[in-house]
Specification:
This protein is of the alpha+beta class and 235 residues long. Helix content is 35%, strand content 22%.
């Protein structure tokens, strides 16, 4: 995986509720930074100065000390880590029936790259993915299939834009810009994270808690004209 930090994890299994035949249980977990960074502490004050981690083509400058970002709050394979998780129940058509947030201690079964996971689903397992194919990977893809069905029924705007990856030489200069392939493994993680964010927003709104939404402004007329021209050229 190209990710420089491993702070989230996913899990899925068929729902055992007889009243939800064909449904799925999906768990999305994220490293519990609040376990170490308490409000008003020196770490909290320093993190507020930075605001967020900064990502460069070849490295990342973390918002928090590296010992926390890359070690204590990294969901390393086989190592118990504090996490905040949401357990979501979906029916066979991908509609969410319920969700529940909880704090837990988790141990990651494996840290796989997108390419590894996709290759295993496509029939090319390796030493890491072989033992996990039936118990971990196929349930994840089964749950994603249901969620993708619901997504297509909603008819959202599809912006499946290619990622650009900057490749550097030994001197740190740009030697190429590559376009990695878009895999179902990428879409799976994105959809699970979207569902977790929706559940978080619903939970906070239910509690009438203040929260911030990212709202994209309407495009300018110039952008609309350029987009229309590009669409006509492509068709």
């Amino acid at each position: 995986m190209d990710a420089r930090d491993h702070d989230d994890a996913v899990f899925a299994e068929p729902d055992t509720d007889p009243g939800n035949e064909g449904g799925w249980t999906v768990v999305v977990a994220i490293a519990d930074v609040a376990h170490y960074v308490t409000p008003g502490s020196a770490l909290d004050r320093e993190a507020r100065k930075r605001g967020n981690s900064v990502y460069f083509p070849d490295r990342v400058v973390p918002m928090l000390p590296e010992r926390i970002s890359n070690e204590l709050c990294s969901l390393k394979e086989g190592v118990p880590r504090p996490c905040l998780a949401v357990r979501m129940i979906f029916d066979k058509n991908g509609h969410k029936k319920s969700h529940r947030f909880f704090r837990a201690l988790m141990r990651s079964a494996a840290s796989l790259s997108y390419e590894q996971a996709q290759a295993a689903i496509d029939g090319r397992t390796d030493e890491a993915t072989g033992p996990l194919l039936d118990t971990v990977l196929r349930p994840l893809w089964g749950a994603y299939g249901s969620l993708d069905k619901a997504r297509k029924a909603r008819g959202p705007l599809e912006l499946d834009l290619p990622e650009r990856k900057i490749l550097l030489d030994d001197e740190g200069r740009v030697r190429a810009i590559a376009t990695p392939p878009r895999l179902d493994a990428h879409r799976l993680i994105e959809e699970f994270m979207i569902q977790a964010n929706v559940a978080a927003a619903e939970a906070l709104e239910t509690k009438r808690s203040p929260l911030v939404y990212r709202i994209h402004d309407a495009p300018s007329k110039e952008k609309l004209v350029r987009s229309a021209s590009s669409w006509r050229r492509s068709t």
